[in-house]
Amino acid sequence: LSSEVVIVEWNPLPGYDSLANVLKPYKSSDPSAPPVRIITVPPEFHTSVAGDTGQSFFEFLGKNVGSRRARGEFILITNGDIVFNDEVFAFLAKR
């Protein structure tokens, strides 16, 4: 199953390492592993859409950013607490 992983880092916290830098040591050297792209939405953009809401993160806007930049025929949007079993990917591979 051809795939990619798109991660959106929304409004990164100042003074902390970027998600791209934190994840570098975990990059797979396996050529069959899906490519991972990290899209960073800068604080300036966040501020322009946040207005005076006081929120520091907009989950659904972040998911929209990632899905609009995905390159595949199908898009699977999920959260960090969701675990898929092999049958899900076997089903998708048949499509």
Walkthrough of the structure:
This protein has helices at residues 19-23, 43-50, 59-69, 86-94; strands at residues 5-10, 36-41. The model has no long low-confidence stretch (mean pLDDT 87). It has 4 helices and 2 strands, in the order βαβααα. Helix 1 (19-23) links the parallel strand 1 (5-10) and strand 2 (36-41). It is of the alpha+beta class.
> Main sheet: which strands, in order across?
1-2
User: Which spans of ≥5 residues are poorly predicted at pLDDT below 50?
Assistant: none
Distance between the termini: 10 Å
The geometry reads as globular
Which structural class fits the helix and strand makeup? alpha+beta
Query: Which range does the strand content fall in?
Result: 5-15%
Cα-atom radius of gyration = 15 Å
Q: Largest beta sheet, briefly?
A: 2 strands, parallel
Please bin the fraction of helical residues: 25-40%
Q: What is the count of helical runs?
A: 4
What integer is the average pLDDT?
87
Order of helices and strands: EHEHHH
How many DSSP-defined strands?
2
List the helices and strands and how they pair.
Blueprint: E1 5-10, H1 19-23, E2 36-41, H2 43-50, H3 59-69, H4 86-94
Parallel strand pairs: 1-2
Summarize the structure.
The protein has four helices and two strands. It has 95 residues and is α+β, with helices and mostly antiparallel strands.
Q: Main traits of this protein?
A:
4 helices; two-stranded parallel ribbon; alpha+beta; 2 strands; 95 residues
